[in-house]
């Protein structure tokens, strides 16, 4: 009996051992299967090629040459644009009868929007707002834009063109329109300097750079209507460039000049009263084609108003401009600001 019991007990022990061994083997098998399944398969690796990200720092596994070209492009973008880019051509022949269809121009300049453009292959040195006081001169505007955009792009400046239009048919007040243009442009664009630009002047030389200076600069020193000469010594009308702070220090233009003329001479008086120097572009490059228009209603009070210029300056200007912005819209080649003054 005892031997039988022993042998039975022996059989039970060996059966238990078998179970444990089989369990262990199954466990190991399961573990190996799980490890096998969790390894990255070749198919998965092919599915996820190295990412081609814009930020090269986050790139993993890119090849060397690719990396070099990205680095080169990035370095170029970090480089300042040249002060005198080799894209300049110098003197330009302005054809006043040029075909200047706005839709064609828009198509030719897909990278201009809201009148803004900046170079894509270098870091522009200057950020310039160009404000064109405007009313009822579409043929002039078309010809001007036809030459101005390409010229500014050759100069590699970051610019935005604003056309500030006086609404209605009331008496023209260019000073108010320019001040309103300045205030609205400043809300939309973070510029360093502002250039007020008559709509009937087309630059003839791209060495006359639409950049920012450390003081006001009279750019249209030689308009064709004056035989390419500066008509008188205090002339600052036509195309005038101000550092932003200087324009504010001067309190902008006077709001009191109704009708044609005087607001530009008043500006010269303001600069003199503020002991602010200005420079004038040499006439060899400050050349502009004057687009022809009829006579306008001159302001009969302009001489008398000039006498009181200095007294008014502090409270008559951009700080106290009565106006309403009626609309602000994207005309692609320019930002259109319609103002009631
Ligand atoms: Mn004119």
From TrEMBL:
GO terms of biological process kind: carbohydrate metabolic process; glycosphingolipid biosynthetic process
Key word Nucleus present: no
Alphabetized SUPFAM superfamilies for the sequence: Nucleotide-diphospho-sugar transferases
A Pfam family annotated for this UniProt entry: Glyco_transf_7N
Record domain Galactosyltransferase N-terminal: where: 81-212
Membrane topology: Single-pass type II membrane protein
Tagged with keyword Cytoplasm: no
Originating organism: Lingula anatina
Residue intervals of the Galactosyltransferase C-terminal domain: 218-293
Family: Belongs to the glycosyltransferase 7 family.
InterPro entries: Galactosyl_T, Galactosyl_T_C, Galactosyl_T_N, Nucleotide-diphossugar_trans
Principal location: membrane
UniProt KW keywords: Glycoprotein, Glycosyltransferase, Membrane, Signal-anchor, Transferase, Transmembrane, Transmembrane helix
Gene Ontology cellular-component terms listed: Golgi apparatus; membrane
Protein's pathway: Protein modification; protein glycosylation
Function, in words: Catalyses the transfer of galactose onto proteins or lipids.
Residues passing through the membrane, by range: 17-37
Entry's localization field: Membrane
Protein EC: 2.4.1.-
Descriptive protein name: Beta-1,4-galactosyltransferase
Database matches in PANTHER family: BETA-1,4-GALACTOSYLTRANSFERASE, BETA-1,4-N-ACETYLGALACTOSAMINYLTRANSFERASE
CDD domains to which the protein is assigned, alphabetical: b4GalT (cd00899)
Listed GO MF terms: galactosyltransferase activity; N-acetyl-beta-glucosaminyl-derivative 4-beta-N-acetylgalactosaminyltransferase activity
């Amino acid at each position: 009996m005892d031997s039988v019991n022993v042998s039975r007990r022996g059989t039970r022990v060996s059966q238990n051992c078998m179970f444990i061994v089989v369990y262990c083997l199954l466990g190991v098998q399961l573990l190996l299967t799980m490890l096998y399944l969790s390894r990255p398969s070749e198919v998965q690796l092919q599915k996820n090629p190295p990412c081609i990200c814009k930020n090269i720092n986050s790139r993993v596994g890119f090849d060397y040459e690719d990396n070099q070209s990205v680095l080169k492009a990035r370095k170029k973008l970090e480089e300042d644009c040249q002060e005198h880019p080799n894209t300049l051509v110098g003197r330009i022949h302005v054809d006043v009868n040029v075909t200047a269809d706005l839709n064609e121009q828009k198509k030719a300049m897909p990278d201009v929007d809201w009148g803004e453009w900046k170079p894509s292959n270098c870091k522009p040195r200057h950020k310039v707002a160009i404000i064109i006081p405007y009313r009822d001169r579409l043929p002039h505007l078309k010809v001007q834009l036809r030459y101005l955009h390409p010229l500014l792009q050759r100069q590699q400046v970051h610019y935005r063109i604003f056309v500030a239009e006086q609404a209605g048919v009331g008496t023209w007040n260019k000073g108010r329109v320019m001040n309103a243009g300045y205030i609205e442009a400043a809300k939309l664009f973070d510029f360093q300097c502002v250039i007020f630009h008559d709509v009937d002047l087309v630059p003839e030389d791209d060495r006359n750079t639409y950049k920012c200076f450390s003081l006001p600069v009279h750019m249209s020193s030689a308009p064709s209507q004056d035989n390419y000469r500066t008509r008188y010594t205090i002339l600052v009308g036509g195309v005038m460039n101000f550092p932003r702070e200087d324009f504010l220090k001067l309190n902008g233009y006077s709001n009191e000049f109704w009708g044609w003329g005087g607001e530009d001479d008043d500006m010269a008086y303001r600069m003199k009263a503020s002991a602010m120097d200005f420079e004038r572009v040499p006439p060899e490059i400050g050349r502009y084609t004057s687009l022809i228009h009829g006579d306008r209603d001159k302001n009969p009070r302009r001489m008398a108003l000039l006498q009181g210029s200095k007294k008014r300056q502090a409270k008559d200007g951009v700080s106290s401009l009565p106006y309403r912005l009626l609309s602000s819209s994207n005309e692609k080649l320019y930002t259109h600001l319609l103002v009631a003054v």
